[in-house]
Amino acid sequence: MSSLLEIKNATLKFGGVVAVNDLSFTVEEGEVYAIVGPNGAGKSTVFNLISRFYDPYSGSITFDGKNLLDRNADQVADLGIARTFQNIELFDHATVLQNLLVGRHRHRRTTMLEEMLFTPRVRREEKRHREAVEEVIDFLDLQPYRNKMIAGLPYGVRKVVEVGRALATGPRLLLLDEPASGLSVEETQDMRWWIDDIRKQMGITVLMVEHDMGLVSGVSDRVLALADGAKLAEGTPAEVQSDPAVIEAYLGAGAA
Ligand SMILES: Nc1ncnc2c1ncn2[C@@H]1O[C@H](COP(=O)(O)OP(=O)(O)O)[C@@H](O)[C@H]1O
Ligand SMILES: [Mg+2]
């Protein structure tokens, strides 16, 4: 049985900087897999490779056995890969509901003409999208913010809405780029429950980049420690945290 996501020997350079260096790892269906590492380690770049924002210089990436490098960013989303961004990317002057409906866009099967005529098929589709979005709103406890403009919402709520926008697309694999960055201790705890529920109740596989080791240890099955774009260590959260190479990379030479 093949892994849900397989990255093999991926390398990406920006000019003289090797952002991702001969990196290989797999993510299995149903797991929460975390990537940790210092700033500039290449974590976001790995996400950008998977989402097909960047082309690797060499290597291969497959999802459910399909070659992602043959596909563009829209096609990758169609295969069931959704993501959030390190710096929240929502429409600030639209409501929570509207932002989540945009996330449903890839499921539209009706034509423009049908939409202009508002045919029964269009009405049925609209209803289906609304229902899917309302489910996500319920799931993430976003009812109080449903019709609020994004711009006026607290940062912590916007982080949850970003997760909701990705969930509304109905993904099989969810990529979360620093879901807890900027969150309070309490909000980080909530985020931990959301990620747990996303995996357990929705059955979605999660690949996340995160700095908060408490969150990483709490939700992840496996952790990959990245340094200078290459694999430093991989294993359970406890294994990775006690790995001498990881301790050294985080605390400086001599600490191990
Ligand atoms: N678009 C880009 N152009 C040039 N260099 C980049 C670009 N994106 C990332 N880098 C460089 O690649 C390296 C990895 O960056 P990044 O993946 O953002 O790290 P992380 O998310 O782990 O903090 C860094 O040295 C960064 O400066
Ligand atoms: Mg980053």
UniProtKB/TrEMBL annotation:
Q: Which UniProt keywords apply?
A: ATP-binding, Nucleotide-binding, Transport
GO CC, any one term: plasma membrane
Q: Which domain of life is it from?
A: Bacteria
Molecular function (Gene Ontology), one example: ATP binding
ABC transporter domain residues are 5-253
Q: Which organism is it from?
A: Shimia aestuarii
Official protein name in the record:
Amino acid/amide ABC transporter ATP-binding protein 1, HAAT family
**Keyword tRNA processing annotated:** no
UniProt-listed Pfam families? ABC_tran (PF00005), BCA_ABC_TP_C (PF12399)
